[in-house]
Amino acid sequence: MNELPLTITEAAAWLRDGRTTSVALTTAMQARADALDPVLGTYLSRCDEAALAAAERADADLASGRDRGPLLGVPVGIKDILATDDCPTTAQSLVLDPAWGDQGDATAVARLRDAGAVVTGKTSTMEFAIGLPDPEKPFPVPRNPWLTSAWAGGSSSGTASGVSAGMFLGGIGTDTGGSIRMPSALCGITGLKPTWGRVPKAGVVPLASTLDHVGPMARSARDCALLLSAMAGYDPSDPCSADVPVTDYVAALDGTLAGLRIGVEREHHTRAPMVDPVAAERFEDAVQMLEKAGASVVEITMDLWEAVNEATIVTTFAEAFAVHRRNLQTRWSDYGSFTRTMVATGAFYTANDYVQAQRVRQAGRQEIAKLLADVDVIAGLTVGAGAPPVEGLDFASTLLLPVFTAVWDGLGLPTVSVPVGFTDAGLPVGMQLSAGAWNEALVLRVADAYQQLTDWHLALPPVLA
Q: Is the previous residue joined to 155 through a cis bond, with omega within 30 degrees of 0?
């Protein structure tokens, strides 16, 4: 099952030296999905015929010398809250009007197609990218390739599971409170939440408009750089899109961290309950590896961490309720139980609560700006434990899961999660790296330098054994 390229970078080389074709690669990954998806619940829908047609076009382009770049002919999965021409868009919900997805490809999807990527299908998520799996609804529960009785994380879980299990080589996720980075950490892959406004949200089902981010997920930071290069850039159809020049993300990956100062944020994961000591050890090992790559390490403290985290939660629920208020009144039972409970929480926040949350977020940005005047990148744990069991997954169990992602959504800053090892139970652990606005190239550079010295991102889960 493993005689396939592991990364987009590797696949691009194979496609150009004749070791494989896009049709052969796509067919093999479809066969892998046939075998593994019934167990993992990665896909909500597959577009096999359209994918093979796109693969044929990619092979024809390469044969004729029309090389559109390293994504040409590479299979990718799309989280099912982004509209696509050739697969239905459901947001994993009975509530979303099926006609919503008829608007054409979301901008990020269209840009991947323009770069030659082969869209294999729509990946499972949490309903409307919030909540938890509801087994009473007719949708798959995404499971973890490292332990199929464990959760793949929320809410870009299908994309994370599919990359980890080799059903496709990269894909799109979204991140409002950690939904790219959390499943990436739990499934042992790399995921990047760009700066808010870097990747357009046109054609994406909204959750919380001031927090929603679209970003790449893949095995390696280099692969994420390739995907981001295609997706990033201004889109006038998205009022949240920023007209900021796009960096050459791949050119920034020089393998060295000489002269960089890494601020290490330990206070919150060292005092948080339920952090696995082994996960904390893996993080410390990773920090030492950053020093080996040439960086200097500085311990820092973010005084407003808890306040910004709470402000991000208030903002999420308030903005989500604004989106779903009418449907909650008329279609309560069509929502999954966890989703409706979480979204309805927004009804209890006042305008004063919401305004105060925005003030706290701004104060947090000011604090981080001061910290980033002294350090280049901030490192911390993504999740302080391995993936929890699917059985019995509920609010109580997820509240106990030590997740450290939401603050960076509230601040809107680029943050990448990279795998840094495993717990004693053999479950992946991730480290997140954050920098100032529009500095995706910098966090990807640090992540790539780390991955040039380690191979955690290339480890294969047991389902591929």
A: yes
